[in-house]
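Exercise: predict the structure of this protein bound to zinc ion.
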Amino acid sequence: MFWPLLFGCFLLVVVALWYFRSRAEVCPQCSAPREPDHPLCSSCGWIYEVPGDADDDYGDADDEEVRV
Ligand SMILES: [Zn+2]
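Solution:
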């Protein structure tokens, strides 16, 4: 009866949690909140993003072997 409604709310909660997790990213090593514009954790130096690894926007992965 109200299970579809409950399932909808559950989906909303999951999406909201995922959204906030992606927004407020925390360090996987020391759980410190990630500071924006900082690729490294300010507490333990954890590397959130490897530079050059997240350039999916360009779409040309052919020249990866050229880079050293
Ligand atoms: Zn950290």
